Amino acid sequence: MKITQEGSVYQLTFFPSWFPVNCYLVDEGNGLTLIDAALPFSYKGILKAAENIGKPITRILLTHAHSDHIGSLDRLKKLLPDCEVVISARDAKLLRGDAALEADEPQTPVKGGVPKPGQIETTPDTLVSEGDIVGSFQVIASPGHTPGHIALYNEKTKALIAGDAFQVRGGVAVSGNLRPLFPFPAWATWNKEVAVQSALKLKKLSPSLLAVGHGKLLHHPEKIMARAIQQAEKALKGGTK
Predict the structure, then answer these.
(1) Model confidence at 197: pLDDT above 90
(2) Is 46 in contact with 11 (CB distance < 8 Å)?
(3) Would you say residue 240 has pLDDT above 80?
(4) Measured distance CA(121)–CA(219) in Å, rounded
(5) Structural domains of the chain ordered from first start
(6) Residue 47 burial by CB count (10 A; 0-12/13-18/19+): exposed, middle or buried?
(7) Is the pLDDT of residue 160 over 80?
(8) Whose CA, among 10, 15, 23, 168, lies 20 to 30 Å from 45?
């Protein structure tokens, strides 16, 4: 595991050399917010990192319900029973194993590692939606990768933790725009058109730091995000995968 610190944000990267999976510890003063829960074995590294920081994990905040973002959720909740678990109201359905689409959503199938019914034992404590405040972050609805995907934005520091709305590994890209060197986020994307709309929304925040589920931290990423959006829009118009 590799740890990269940027202010109050600690990026924890598992398999950094070949298949980087990130989660984040954020220092909220009296405690830590864990954003995403990485892979099933990752709980050991997460707990060790929190111990080294010297503060307890008091909240687990999930950007979406894919397996590489909820892998350690059950184990952590058992070890930290008082920890608040937070997810969007929409992706709470995916967490329960319900991949059915709602009537007002594009009827493209949900993809990626969605848990089977009953596979995840943890029941979220708090369900959030656009504009809610969780710790130092504002919830930004950013569907596309999944129907209920959210990003987290700190208005004070302008740090944006964007889950899989963008990827950095294999080349910066909007979710759904295939990067051959790291195609997995694209393969797991529910709806490319919606993903581009969300990417545009996130770029308008003008973040100073972009932190994603796969790849390194990016400083002053607005121009890079704009280029990735242009590439995704071109791919959609051309009908490329």
Answers:
(1) yes
(2) no
(3) no
(4) 37
(5) 2-238 (3.60.15.10)
(6) middle
(7) yes
(8) 168
